[in-house]
Design goal:
mainly beta; Lipocalin; 2 helices
Length: 189
């Protein structure tokens, strides 16, 4: 074998190895929470969550790339106050009759070493789509002793400007900026 052939074979093998590092993870719903925070007329902080979500994440740590697609059932909003949950589902806020789900599709992952540091993509909420970047405050992967598979996850956050999604009810008493916090774990398939 010539030196050129040997080098070409080594490069192809390395490319195959890097490609083999790509893995798909399915969102584990009992360890994944999507919560939001908003100041209530400048006093206390209103908190809520969405109880039903589903999706998958692809990560290639060797190539430092990833993709994600997460769907949130907007009818699963829960603040602990039934009448408020009903109002959030109405046309004043999420209009769940017309837009029963929100979707985050990401195609840009930023890594710090082999850990995900940032995920960017588009969020479709209340029928409108805008770019969103989620910053990781924590990220790790581990071998689950119960599942006998790798699980990756972390804590991510961003601030949404709700008027960009056409959600303007209560402005300015209820602020335009909403803090979105995502705790996610996903199981390697």
């Amino acid at each position: 074998m010539t030196q050129k052939t040997l080098l070409a074979t080594a490069l192809l093998a390395a490319a195959g190895f890097a490609h083999a590092q790509s893995a798909t993870y399915h969102v584990e719903p009992t360890h994944t929470f999507v919560t939001f925070e908003a100041k209530h007329f400048g006093t206390s902080t209103l908190r809520g969550r969405f109880d039903r979500k589903d999706g998958s994440v692809q990560i290639d740590r060797a190539a430092k790339t990833g993709k994600a697609e997460i769907t949130i059932d907007m009818n699963s909003v829960s603040t602990g106050v039934g009448p408020l949950d009903g109002h959030l589902k109405s046309k004043d806020f999420f209009d769940t009759a017309a837009n029963p789900s929100a979707k985050f599709v990401a195609d840009k992952f930023v890594f710090d070493g082999d850990k995900v540091a940032e995920v960017s993509g588009a969020l479709t909420l209340a029928g409108k789509t805008n770019p969103v970047t989620l910053k990781a405050t924590n990220f790790n992967c581990y071998q689950s002793p119960m599942l006998k598979r790798e699980v990756c996850g972390g804590d991510f956050e961003t601030t949404l400007v709700r008027s960009q999604y056409g959600i303007v009810y209560g402005l300015p008493g209820i602020p335009d900026n909403i803090r979105l916090l995502i705790q996610i774990e996903a199981i390697k398939q």
